[in-house]
Amino acid sequence: MSRYSDETDFRHDAQDCTGVLLVNLGTPDKPDAPSVRRYLAEFLWDPRVVEIWRPLWWLILHGVILRIRPRKVAALYRSVWTPEGSPLLVIPQKQTERVAKKLAGIVPGRVETVLAMRYGSPSIQEGLETLRQRGARRLLVLPLYPQYSATTTASVFDEVTRVLGQRRLVPGLRFIQHYHDDPAYINALAASIREHWDVHGRPDKLLMSFHGIPRRCLLAGDPYFCEVQKTGRLLAETLGLEDDQWFLAFQSRFGREEWLKPYVDQTLRDWGAAGVGRVDVVCPGFSADCLETLEEISVQNRETFIESGGSEYHYIPALNERQDHIEALSQLLVRNMAGWDEDCNDPAARLARAQAHGAQA
Questions:
Q1: What is the pLDDT of residues 69-122, one digit of tens each?
Q2: CA distance 86 to 90
């Protein structure tokens, strides 16, 4: 029996189609302990996420972490859950719908755009199968992580190629590695901050918070730290900020080893104690609001700053489905489709040629 999936539904007269797969991290199906346990088991078992010797990590993960953390994490998810569901599913779904509509109006030929999650549902395998059934013979993958990291972007690549490696007919593949310095992305971030300041006034400090990774990843050659720094610099320049008006730090560390510094929570403690009155926080590494922004940044770190002596704290939401964000993502996709419209041809003529050589359909 063949290890590769068959393509018995192939038709020579099928219209050419480009498939776009937007990928974000993922979320539990429900804000309860069993769902969180399943999600964390998949997420934390990925060797891209935790680079520890597998047998030892299996014992730690299943013997300790998955016994303790799911109940606590489920309570945090319940605090941000909406009537529509998890923000990190609801928002990317809306982004996907709007990007699909935008691409349909500017790209020659047929484009099918679907959403997938690296962990949880809808899975990358489900997303790729949906695109296959819709006739996608060219595939463009956009991980919704502006800055590249092996812990995120590369993990998406691993799973996409694992799934495609099971196929007999592999589509043409393009993979967007990052967009950390894309002018439209930077301008959208700047516009969102300016709009917030137009309503609430300016802070004493603008804190740019990015998700952390272990420092050893940087030392091993992961470019994430460098790309984060470039995003921060470009955003500050676009906003016209002086060096003492903004700061960049890292959140969401896990475990006991050293992660990228400075840490967000310690920075806020120091600022509160030093008499910094108002802080605004923006998270330019998150394309959509999620547990890490809505609970950790907006709630936990607000408390940290206020309890340390600060007086006012604002979280500026992620770009989510803002129009300028949708425009930036759509134009990024269009640029990476360059030349593919030249592959489009007449399905009827293709079928006639195939039938001349004995094809039935």
A1: 999 999 999 999 999 999 999 999 999 999 999 999 999 889 999 999 999 999
A2: 6
Ordered DSSP codes for 180-235: TT-HHHHHHHHHHHHHHHHHH---SEEEEEEE--BHHHHHTT--HHHHHHHHHHHH
User: What per-residue confidence (pLDDT) applies to 351?
Assistant: 57
DSSP 343: G
292 is in an annotated binding site: yes
| Token couple for 354 | 């195939």
The model scores a pTM over 0.70: yes
Whether the Cβ atoms of residue 115 and residue 93 lie closer than 8 Å to each other: yes
Q: Is residue 262 reached through a cis peptide bond, with omega within 30 degrees of 0 on the bond before it?
A: yes
Helix (H, G, I), strand (E, B) or coil at 315: strand
Residue found by looking up tokens 């676009």 in the block: 238
Domains identified in the chain and CATH numbers: 17-166+323-344 (3.40.50.1400), 183-316 (3.40.50.1400)
What is the amino acid identity at position 106?
Answer: I
DSSP 231-299: HHHHHHHHHT--GGGEEEEEE---SSS-BSSSBHHHHHHHHHHHT--EEEEE-TT-SS--HIIIIIIII
DSSP code string of 95-135:
HHHHHHHHHHHHSSSEEEEEEEEEEESSBHHHHHHHHHHTT
Question: Which of 90, 290, 322, 56 is closest to 193 using CA atoms?
Answer: 322
314 is in an annotated binding site: no
Range 223-240 average pLDDT:
98
Residues constituting the chain = 361
Residue 342 is classified by DSSP as G
Long-range pairs, 154-163, Cβ under 8 A, ≥24 = 154/48, 155/46, 155/48, 155/49, 155/118, 156/23, 156/118, 156/124, 158/48, 159/118, 159/124, 159/125, 160/21, 160/124, 160/128, 163/124, 163/125, 163/128
